[in-house]
Amino acid sequence: MNPAKFFMLKSAWDRFAANHPKFPKFLQAAAQASIGEGSIIEIKITNANGDAIASNLKVTAEDMELFHKLREGAWQEP
Fold it and tell me: At residue 21, what are phi and psi to the nearest 5 degrees?
């Protein structure tokens, strides 16, 4: 990742985290949870009108490999 883009993204994340302090704490708790193969991850979005959409997925071994790489920073360019 380009360093300038990284700092722009970091700045945007810091503003987001300041506006929504519970969300980063949720992500930290989720990362420490026993998420493993067979776990269910569900996402729900409710708009201002009250309309909701939700989806879920069952975590696979391949998903766990991706999560492990993301934690190690494998997404960064050398």
Answer: -60, -25
Indicate whether 14 and 42 sit together in one domain. no
Phi, psi (rounded to 5 degrees) for 63? -60, -45
39: containing domain? 35-78
| Contact criterion met (CB below 8 Å) for 10 and 2 | no
Based on the fold, state whether residues 29 and 3 are members of the same structural domain.
yes
Please list the rounded mean pLDDT of every run of 10 residues in the chain (78 residues): 84 96 91 88 97 97 89 65
Q: pTM of the prediction? A: 0.65
| Cα-based torsion angle of the residue sequence 33, 37, 38, 41 in order, rounded to the nearest 10 degrees | 50
Distance CA 24, CA 14 (A): 10
